[in-house]
Every structure is written in C-alpha cells, then in structure tokens.
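Per your request, structure below.
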C-alpha cells in the first residue's frame, strides 16, 4: 500500500509550493482579459453540495483511489492520471484554447496536527490571499486556503485553491489551478471538494 508522505509545517509549505510549480509546468500560453473575480476565501462546501450536485453530478464520474481508498467525483472528458509523480495521488486536467490549463491535484500526507496557521506563511507568495480558515467537509476537519496571482504568461490571472482534509489515516490535500477565463470552474472545485469521502476508520 502506498504510504502517505510525512507532513510537517515546513514540508506542507514546500509541498504546496512544489504543487504550484509542478502544475504551472502544464500551463499553456493563452491570451485573456483579466476577470476580477472577488475571492471570498470561504466555500460553503457542505451547505452548497446538494445544489451543486444538480449541476455537476451529470457531468462527473466517481473515482475510487485503489490504495488510499478515498473517493472523489471528477469531470467527464478531463485527462486523469494516477500517481503522476511521487507526491501526487491523482491529477485531473483539461486544456482549453485561449487559456491556460486547468489542473486539479490530490495528494496524501502522513497525519499530523494542522491548522489554518500552517498556511499563513504562504500568503506573501500571492497577490491576493485572504488567508486560511478551518471548516468541515463531510464531517472531517478541513483547512481551506484561496489565492490568486498573475502568471508570467502575459499577465493572465490564475486562481489557486487548497484544501487539507483530516482523513482517519492521513491528511488529504486537494488543490486546483484555474485560469481567469475558466473562473466559473471554481464552483466545480467546490463540488469536487464536497464529493471527497475519506475511507472509514
């Protein structure tokens, strides 16, 4: 069975930065007008999941990770890859003409104590980062972090989402990189996040 990576505050920061760098590698050059989407930093994941399901359930399929045993709904038609690197359990991405790639990653880390404070040192890395806050997803303690930055591709605005979920045997990190032209898919991220189910105790 694949073992989760040991998670410390320093490793969490390094892992998230590495995830952004790895995902940025897949971004394609594209022109677009900046969409000034206001980031609330909050997602009513559980409260909105039922209404989001009406829209996204027909457009997604359930994926069950065979080793770590978590499940998540992923969009039909997106490219999906299991274990694309040593840190990532699942990568789901799509390329669109005129915009950068949209990427969703899931990674597992060794369980440890974590809180919103673990993300605070990341805020300086982004132009707009309201900060992290703690909530729950399907009854599991979760830390959410939202941010945005202009990419080096002609100033295109990029939106980032991170969620660290307290599963029974490991911490599950679900992150996304969404270009401004596809900013409506931040709602898709909320739906995918709400669909995540940790394995039972």
């Amino acid at each position: 069975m694949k073992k989760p990576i040991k998670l410390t505050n320093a490793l969490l920061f390094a892992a998230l930065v590495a995830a952004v760098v790895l995902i940025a590698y897949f971004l394609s050059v594209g022109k677009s007008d900046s969409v000034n989407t206001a980031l609330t930093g909050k997602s009513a994941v559980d409260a909105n999941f039922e209404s989001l399901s009406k829209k996204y359930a027909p457009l997604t399929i359930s994926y069950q990770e065979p080793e770590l045993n978590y499940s998540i709904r992923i969009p039909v038609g997106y490219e999906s890859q299991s274990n694309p690197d040593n840190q990532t359990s699942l990568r789901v991405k799509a390329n669109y003409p005129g915009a950068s790639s949209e990427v969703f990653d899931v990674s597992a880390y060794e369980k440890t104590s974590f809180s919103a404070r673990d993300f605070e040192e990341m805020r300086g890395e982004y132009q707009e980062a309201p900060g992290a806050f703690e909530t729950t997803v399907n009854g599991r303690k979760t830390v959410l972090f939202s941010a945005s930055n202009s990419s080096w591709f002609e100033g295109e605005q990029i939106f980032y989402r991170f969620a660290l979920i307290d599963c029974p045997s490991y911490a599950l990190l679900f992150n996304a990189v969404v270009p401004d032209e596809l900013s409506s898919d931040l709602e898709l991220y909320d739906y995918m996040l709400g669909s995540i189910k940790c394995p039972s105790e």
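Confidence is low (pLDDT under 50) at residues 17-43.

Regards,
D.
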